[in-house]
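Sample intake sheet
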Amino acid sequence: MEHTTQEPKSPAKVGTDDEQNGIALDDVFSVLSNSRRRHILEELDRDPELTLATLAEQLAAIENDCAREELTSEQRKRLYISLYQTHLPALDDAGVIDLSERREIEVHRSVVAAFVRVIEFTSAQQIENDGERGNGVFEKLLTGGSR
């Protein structure tokens, strides 16, 4: 007897307010797998009107553990280029934001808010579990919350 596997007809999607614009589960994990993208999501959730330059400056200050006024032009530039060339296009491809050719960011607020809820939940679980790996979020999700 030959064993075959069938590919799903469509990738698993995480629903949003508009189910037709759901985000593929692989895209969710890809977005959340990078700490810089998680910081981007948190900043855009706090202020969806941020410009690329302001977002880069805020993240550079966070990553360099200093006030925005203390940043060097190189620190700002490094973050700006990283956002523009890598992270914002990834968020755009995943359907989290729309990045225009003029480098303007249009935030899909309900999607960003959903991602931030996941970030907050997983952060709380990590703290609750004292940072122990293997006994955290995914085990709880898979076992329905029991250990």
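Comment: Helices lie at 25-32, 35-46, 52-63, 73-93, 109-128, 137-143. Residues 22-143 form one domain.
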